[in-house]
Amino acid sequence: xxxxxxxxxxxxxxxxxxxxxxxxxxxxxxxxxxxxxxxxxxxxxxxxxxxxxxxxxxxxxxxxxxxxxxxxxxxxxxxxxxxxxxxxxxxxxxxxxxxxxxxxxxxxxxxxxxxxxxxxxxxxxxxxxxxxxxxxxxxxxxxxxxxxxxxxxxxxxxxxxxxxxxxxxxxxxxxxxxxxxxxxxxxxxxxxxxxxxxxxxxxxxxxxxxxxxxxxxxxxxxxxxxxxxxxxxxxxxxxxxxxxxxxxxxxxxxxxxxxxxxxxxxxxxxxxxxxxxxxxxxxxxxxxxxxxxxxxxxxxxxxxxxxxxxxxxxxxxxxxx
Amino acid sequence: xxxxxxxxxxxxxxxxxxxxxxxxxxxxxxxxxxxxxxxxxxxxxxxxxxxxxxxxxxxxxxxxxxxxxxxxxxxxxxxxxxxxxxxxxxxxxxxxxxxxxxxxxxxxxxxxxxxxxxxxxxxxxxxxxxxxxxxxxxxxxxxxxxxxxxxxxxxxxxxxxxxxxxxxxxxxxxxxxxxxxxxxxxxxxxxxxxxxxxxxxxxxxxxxxxxxxxxxxxxxxxxxxxxxxxxxxxxxxxxxxxxxxxxxxxxxxxxxxxxxxxxxxxxxxxxxxxxxxxxxxxxxxxxxx
Lengths: 321, 289
Description:
Mean pLDDT of chain B: 84
Shape of chain A: globular
Largest sheet of chain A: 2 strands, antiparallel
Strand order of the largest sheet of chain B: 1-2
Radius of gyration of chain A: 20 Å
Distance between the termini of chain A: 24 Å
Helix content of chain B: over 70%
Order of helices and strands of chain A: HHHHHHEHHHHEHHHH
Number of strands of chain A: 2
Helix content of chain A: over 70%
Oligomer: heterodimer
Number of strands of chain B: 2
Low-confidence stretches of chain B: none
Distance between the termini of chain B: 50 Å
Strand content of chain A: under 5%
């Protein structure tokens, strides 16, 4: 089992990831790759939420984009109607997404497995419809515009590099939160629920409370991703938050691996950067993405990250011999 | 009143396509234990094959058979090549089927394009029955669906193969000991459901235009139909299809057309929460993991 104190490998991995994330803009990536890195970071924040609810608590969702949408639309509506800026809207978006995630999670107490997944898909489709039919309040099919982030500590977020660091800071907070959750008694409780829910209930774990709790944390991450996305894109529309973006989020988290700390990040990076590096057009990259997913599920059911971990362990054990 | 009957006739033909996809899903999900999210894409590909064959000069009904065979083979390949490995982990199969759906959808866009496809009405007659115009093709669609429903229903409830199939769902181990090749039945059900999707696609393109994205819209209605009726329950799928078809047809005429899609979603969420076994009862699908 995992030890409460980080092992040496964990520290090394953390330092490598941290150095990579912080130094990325200094590698002279150019406008295109830097903006791709920002969207990847935003996606990974949402994926960490999905990682907690699926990887730890075992509740899959194919409606996760809806919670990103709630965060994004909360920010856009607060800005458009009340003139509330980014920093005040941030807690609102996060909270509101968490509350909605908890509410939509309520059926998960009653129905499990594929039935709940289909429910999340339906809710997401309903959310998309509600946004499209929401009239001027949600900007209907054309969506809403958002201004820029207010400068803080003299940092101007119109500069791409500063937005990148904002996203990285948020991502690191999510990573840290995920790490702490995974290694706390709370994480063990969630994994107990994942592995055997009736048994967990029998030993006195309040499974309902913890499941909703995990879903709300997941929703909070998604809400944070949503407000960052709204302020980065400057324009949001219902199409970004419908069932299909949700499916892609679910596929990304499966591709990267949901149970390990860096799995969601790996999934987001692979899916965003690989087509760009291989110069695939969007259609071919979607096909490649689907094929990659099939290969991963058939050969590496734990995702790319656990595959890499196994290769690493195999190499290490070979060296010791 | 005549408008009402007109709407009724129209929604009956829409319901037929929904029933065909719903029966496929209800059999594959409820009996073979596979959640195939790509089933809508199978239907869309059936439509595309029909379009391709008809535009290259083939008779519609021959093209329909061609589409059924093609999608049947596609289903066979998918089951043998992919889903047979995830039968013990249905959640992985489900995720994999989403991947298949992404691949098929974009492969069709790559091969053809994303513009919607139509074919000329293969029958091209309009009957007037008691002041109501009935497009003959719609009647053909409804009657073909009725035949398929009857064959499937009696095949499962009366024939010895249907009985063997139900036995392997009820108790896989005992069924195997009694000499029933359970794995072959799973493949058989998957292929049969796929063939129905091919038929549904062919019939659909005779009535409406199809785009590469049609499948992903229809899949959720297919799940709605099969879950409303109860998984593995053919009669339930028919009832579910009729309910959804009527709600849609009538809401387009009388309700708020922009919320048409929402009705089936709300009905489905409500049924999944209140009666997960469906209105008419059925299996609960693969053991939830």
